[in-house]
Write a structure and sequence with these properties.
Length: 301
């Protein structure tokens, strides 16, 4: 997430310091940013001559003090571990100027319970979606002491960058998008584990049905189109029982045991023809960029 976040701010014209504890990771981050920008150029969304200028706006350092000494905003995207984040915020509070807003990209941790800084009014969660240089949503989650001014400034910054921030009034595990995604994942794994459908069939059903409608109708407007009287009947249908909560899935466990971890290992539920993860991601990103442009031009994004 870190390199992609740095790229997103740099593409919007902001000078960025990208910090990590490991110089090799920073080297790799610069390569990934350049490759991502070439994909934008290939999709016709960035002048090929502008790639170098964007890359140059991202400076990298293993010194957190250098990275933060003149920062207006810090976006933390370290490992999803409360102890690591707690310690990092302690450091950020010391090395950042008093004006700096400190944002966490946590996926599910209630950082407001354990982060201690002298500026709780300037601490919040900005939860981005992978890949953040393409996906527009950023969930802004305020803590009990986050000021309205902080929320307003971060929201205005993200809007100016072409992002779609949604403010969530208080911490809720999974925020909004991950809760919706989790409900779908739970049902998907129930159907797979109980032999109702193959992975191919499930993705065909998803893409060829509500998947096509979602970019236009979302999940709420869809109910208006279906008719709320019908929706009432669907809710009342006692025959539908959501799958029970589980802590594992035999289908996933079997794949992981065989080293099939998904795109990063070359195969998961599907095989990817021996192509590198970079190639597979590039193809996905090109398609996502084209779809996003189409939906933006249609006024749907
Ligand atoms: N991967 C996703 O799709 C996704 C989506 C939304 C949010 N997030 C959240 O973003 C954060 C990062 O996720 P990721 O998938 O990029 O993780 P990752 O493990 O790929 O990267 C974490 C990076 O943090 C660095 N790091 C660890 N401790 C550090 C420290 N003390 N100081 C500086 N750097 C440190 C590591 O070297 C590593 O490069 C997590 O909180 C995760 O929950 C991830």
């Amino acid at each position: 997430m870190g390199h992609s976040l740095a790229q997103t701010f740099a593409q919007a014209g902001h000078p960025v310091w990208l910090h990590d504890v490991d110089e090799a990771i920073l080297r790799r981050a610069r390569q990934l940013i350049a490759a991502n920008l070439r994909t934008f150029a290939e999709a016709g969304l960035l002048d090929a001559g502008a790639v170098a200028a964007v890359v140059d706006r991202v400076r990298t350092t293993t010194s957190i003090a250098s990275a933060c000494e003149d920062a207006d905003l810090v976006v933390e995207a370290v490992s999803e571990d409360a102890a690591v984040k707690k310690e990092l915020f302690r450091t950020l509070d010391v090395v950042s100027p008093g004006r700096t807003i400190l944002a966490s990209n946590t996926s599910y941790l209630d950082i407001f319970r354990f982060v201690e800084t002298g500026r709780p009014e300037r601490v919040l969660i900005t939860h981005w979606f992978a890949p953040p240089h393409i996906v527009p949503l950023v969930e802004i989650v305020r803590g009990p002491e986050t000021s309205q001014d902080t929320v307003d400034r971060v929201r205005a910054l993200l809007v100016a960058m072409g992002k779609k921030p949604v403010v969530i009034a208080k911490f809720l595990p999974g925020f909004i998008a991950n809760r919706l995604q989790s409900a779908l994942t739970r049902e998907t794994l129930f159907l797979l584990d109980n032999g109702y459908a193959t992975p191919e069939e499930l993705d065909t059903v998803t893409k060829a049905s509500f998947g096509l409608r979602i970019p236009i109708l979302g999940t709420v407007k869809r109910m208006d189109f279906a008719g709320l009287d019908l929706t009432q009947k669907v809710i009342a249908n006692a025959q539908y029982e959501p799958p029970p909560a589980r802590t594992s899935s035999p289908a996933v466990d079997a794949l992981v045991q065989n080293g099939r971890l998904g795109v990063k290992s070359g195969s998961g539920f599907f095989a990817y023809g021996g192509r590198s993860p970079e190639e597979i991601m590039r193809e996905r990103d090109l398609k996502l960029l084209k779809l996003k442009k189409f939906l933006t031009d249609m006024g749907e994004l």
